[in-house]
Amino acid sequence: MRKLDPVKHEKKRQEILGAAMRCFLCSGLKGASTADICAEAKISPGHLYHYFDSKDAIVASLIEGRLEKVAEQLKAGIQSESSIVETLAPELEAQPGGAAAMALIFDMMAESKRNPEMGKIVDSHNRSIRESLVEMLRYGQSRGEVEGKLDLEVTATTIMALMHAAKVVAMQNPKEADKALPVLRQLLGHLLTTPAESAKAGPPRTKKTVARVRA
């Protein structure tokens, strides 16, 4: 039996994943078939199964790769001197691939709710992302960048919601995405900053406004 070369094997896996992504962007998650992916990757169906058990396994790998990149970015942000808003800015911007890429991300998330195995992958990585955000927020509190009384778990969940909101804007109103980015960054900044720091950045707020921002 020929010995498997792990480097070549992984390279081919990535080529297949790239071909699958192109097919999904063109035809959607449901519309792209295994045959389409094989044709795009220039391999036979039998060859495909040396690398992935099924189309679901391909989708799961794409989801896992996407979430791992986000988690790595957040961990790098914790170790840098950049502000939290600057660290998170790339996740508030339109992603490469435009509206089709944004739609595909949500399609994959929806599929994870229908497919238990994909669901486990997404839930695990979402927990990892949330933990990284909490760690980043705790560090931000230690250097006075983040309000000390914030519930970090709730704040991390809210930040994740803002990330999704940015993708919704890019998907539904791509022409407005660049205009929405400064607003989203401002919302994030107001969510995190202490009342004293917020006062320096703008006009005084009423008690009602402060309560609304903290909510």
Detailed description of the structure:
The chain is an all-alpha fold. The protein folds into two domains: 1-52, Arc Repressor Mutant, subunit A; 55-214, Tetracycline Repressor, domain 2 (Orthogonal Bundle). The chain is 76% helix and 0% strand. It has eleven helices and no strands. Helix 4 (55-79) packs parallel to helix 7, helix 6 packs across helix 8 and helix 7 (116-142) packs across helix 8 (152-172). The protein starts with 5 loop residues before the first helix and ends with a helix. The model is unreliable at 196-215 (pLDDT under 50).
CATH architecture of the largest domain: Orthogonal Bundle
**Beta fraction of the residues?**
under 5%
Compute the number of helices: 11
CATH class descriptor name of the largest domain: Mainly Alpha
Query: Looking at CATH, which topology of the largest domain would you report?
Result: Tetracycline Repressor, domain 2
Overall pLDDT level: 81
Q: Name the CATH homologous superfamily of the largest domain.
A: Tetracycline Repressor, domain 2
Major sheet description: none
- The total count of strands amounts to 0
Briefly note the structural class of the backbone: mainly alpha
Order of helices and strands: HHHHHHHHHHH
For the record, the count of structural domains works out to: 2
First-last Cα distance: 63 Å
What is the gyration radius calculated from CA atoms?
21 Å
Share of helix, binned:
over 70%
Shape: elongated
Uncertain segments of ≥5 residues (pLDDT<50)?
A: 196-215
